[in-house]
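We close this part of the discussion by returning to an individual protein. Part of our work consisted of pairing the sequence of a single chain with a tokenised description of its backbone. No coordinates are needed to read the tokens, only the vocabulary itself. The amino acid sequence and the backbone structure tokens for this protein are reproduced below:
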Amino acid sequence: MAEKKLNGEVYYPTNEIMDYAHAKCESLYKSAEKDPVGFWEAEAKNLHWFTKWDKVLDDSNKPFFKWFTGAKTNIAFNCLDVHVQTPRRNKLALIWEGEDGEFRSYSYFKLHRETCRFANVLKSLGVKKGDRVTLYMGRIPELMIGMLACARIGAIHSVVLQFH
């Protein structure tokens, strides 16, 4: 917190909170700069992989680098499925409050269920891996559900936010 340029009603974390924070940005930056391949390999081990990589970084065809060659994972699985089979299934994954005060919350289990439902809707419309889907809506929970559903089936998504 070297530069405190914000004004208005701003609350900065205490030094005690900063000491115990998981996001130690400076040390992460230094670690990534010192050994980028080793850094990303260590970070990748925190994810679930259906197939582990053959090579972390394939730089044989520069400048067309390939990361984690031969590996297979799914970001939606890593966001939701890994939690659904644990006691975290009932913990809140998403808390949303609209501008009008409307409030909705989703546990990992509920968000997983809604994501799977929407993925099935997309599949029933013929959307498959590699297809492109544009999501045009406001900042509501269904936007995240749509993004996760696309990732779940391997569709590429693009978000167009609707503003009032």
User: Anything to note?
Assistant: The domain at 74-164 is CATH 3.40.50.980 (Rossmann fold). The CA atoms of residues 71 and 138 lie 34 Å apart. Residues 108-124 form the longest helix (17 residues).
